[in-house]
Write a structure and sequence with these properties.
Elements (H helix, E strand, L loop, with lengths): L1 E17 L2 E15 L2 E7 L9 H18 L5 H11 L4 H19 L3 H4 L14 E3 L4 H13 L4 E5 L5 H11 L4 E5 L6 H13 L2 E5 L7 H10 L4 E3 L9 H4 L5 E5 H4 L2 H13 L3 E5 L5 H8 L7 E2 L12 E2 L3 E2 L2 E2 L11 E2 L1
Helix pairs in contact: 1-2, 1-3, 2-3, 5-6, 7-8
C-alpha cells in the first residue's frame, strides 16, 4: 500500500470562537492510501487541547506508514489500529487519519459504503441530524448566525457559551428562533455551582442538553452538576476513548465521541459500544475538519443518538467533497462506496 500525506489550510466562513479562543483558519493533514487502483482518504484535525499540532502529525506519518506497510492488508484495520497504539503513544488525530483512510479504501475495494461494513442500514432515514454550531460572539452576531442557520434548514443549534453574557445570549437566541432545538456547550468554562445555576436557567429556555459544563479533570464537580441539573449532561473533554467511559458513566447522560479523540472509526465503534454498555447515549462530534474525515464520522450516524458533525459546513471552501447534507441531514444513501470523501 502506498501512503502519502499533505497539509491543507482551511479558511472558515466566519471567525469561530469558543471559551478557549478564536480561529479564522485551521490546518488538517490529509492522508491518502492507495491499493489495487483504489485510493482511500482520511484526515487529521489536530488539537493542541489534546497535545497535537500539524507538525506532530506530519512527524508521525513515516512511523504510521511503516505500520500500514507491515500489516499490508487494508481489511485488517483492527490489526493496524492495535499496532499503531503500540508504536505511537497518544496522538489520536494522527492515527485517525490512517484508520479513516483504511476504512475508505476498504469500502472502495469492496464496492460498499462504510456504514454497510459497520452492519447498519444507514440509508433508512433514521439517522440523527447534525447540529449547527454558533460560535461565541457578541450577542447580536450570534442571533444573526442562528437565524441564518435556521433559515438554511438547520433545526438544531449548538450555542458556544462561556462568557459573562451567557444568560443574555440564550434568551436572545431563543426569542429569535423559537422553534429550533438548542444545545449549549460551555467547553469547560464554568465552575460547578455556576454550572448548576446555568442549567436551571437553561431548562426554562427549552435547552435540550448541556455539554462539558466544567473542566475535564473535575470529575467530582461533574458529578455534582449531573446530580443537580434538571437537564441532561454531555461530556466531551472528559471522555476521549472507550477507556474513559467508566469514569464518567455516573456523571453524565451522553458521551461526545470524536474521531480525533478516539483515534479513528475503529476505536470509535469500541467507545460507542462501551457507552451503550454503561447505559449512556452516544454522540459523535468533530473539530473543524475537511470532508476527508467528516465523511467517515457520518458513517457512524446509524449508531448514534445525536450528531455534531458540522465541521466542514463551517468552512469557506473545502478541497474535498463528502456525504451530501441537506437541512442538517446527511444522505448516506448517496454514498456508493467508502466514506464518500474525494478530492473536488
Amino acid at each position: 500500500m502506498n501512503v502519502s500525506a499533505e497539509t491543507v489550510e482551511l479558511t472558515l466562513d466566519a471567525p469561530f470562537t469558543i471559551a478557549r479562543g478564536t480561529k479564522t483558519t485551521v490546518e488538517n493533514v490529509v492522508v491518502s492510501i492507495e491499493r489495487d487502483g483504489a485510493t482511500g482518504y482520511g484526515a487529521a484535525a489536530p488539537s493542541p487541547r489534546y497535545g497535537e499540532t500539524t507538525a506532530t502529525v506530519e512527524a508521525l506519518v513515516p512511523e504510521l506508514r511503516s505500520v500500514v506497510e507491515a500489516v499490508d492488508d487494508p481489511h485488517a484495520r483492527r490489526a493496524v489500529a492495535d499496532r499503531m497504539a503500540e508504536v505511537v503513544r497518544a496522538n489520536p488525530a494522527a492515527k485517525a487519519a490512517i484508520d479513516i483512510a483504511l476504512w475508505d479504501l476498504t469500502g472502495k475495494l469492496l464496492g460498499e459504503p462504510v456504514y454497510r461494513l459497520l452492519g447498519t442500514a444507514g440509508a433508512d432515514g433514521t439517522c440523527p441530524p447534525t447540529s449547527f454550531t454558533v460560535g461565541l460572539d457578541d450577542t447580536a452576531a450570534m442571533v444573526e448566525r442562528a437565524e441564518t442557520a435556521v433559515d438554511a434548514g438547520h433545526g438544531t443549534l449548538k450555542l458556544k457559551l462561556g462568557s459573562d453574557r451567557d444568560r443574555r445570549i440564550v434568551e436572545a437566541v431563543r426569542d429569535a428562533v423559537p422553534g429550533a432545538t438548542i444545545r449549549v456547550d460551555a467547553n469547560e468554562a464554568w465552575e460547578p455551582a455556576e454550572a448548576i445555576r446555568h442549567c436551571r436557567l437553561l431548562e426554562s429556555h427549552g435547552v435540550e442538553f448541556v455539554e462539558q459544563p466544567v473542566p475535564a479533570g473535575d470529575l467530582a464537580g461533574l458529578k455534582r452538576v449531573h446530580d443537580r441539573s434538571p437537564l441532561p449532561i454531555a461530556v466531551d473533554e472528559s471522555c476521549r476513548t472507550a477507556a474513559d467511559v467508566p469514569s464518567v458513566a455516573d456523571r453524565c447522560d451522553i458521551v461526545n465521541l470524536k474521531l480525533m479523540k478516539t483515534g479513528g472509526v475503529t476505536p470509535a465503534v469500541d467507545a460507542i459500544a462501551t457507552a451503550r454498555a454503561h447505559g449512556l447515549e452516544a454522540m459523535c462530534g468533530c473539530m473543524i475538519e475537511t470532508n476527508a474525515s467528516i465523511a467517515a464520522a457520518a458513517q457512524l450516524l446509524p449508531l448514534l443518538d445525536y450528531a455534531d458533525l458540522d465541521g466542514s459546513l463551517l468552512l469557506a471552501d473545502d478541497p474535498y467533497r463528502g456525504v451530501p447534507v441537506r437541512s442538517g441531514q446527511f444522505d448516506l444513501g448517496a454514498v456508493e462506496a467508502g466514506t464518500g470523501a474525494a478530492p473536488r
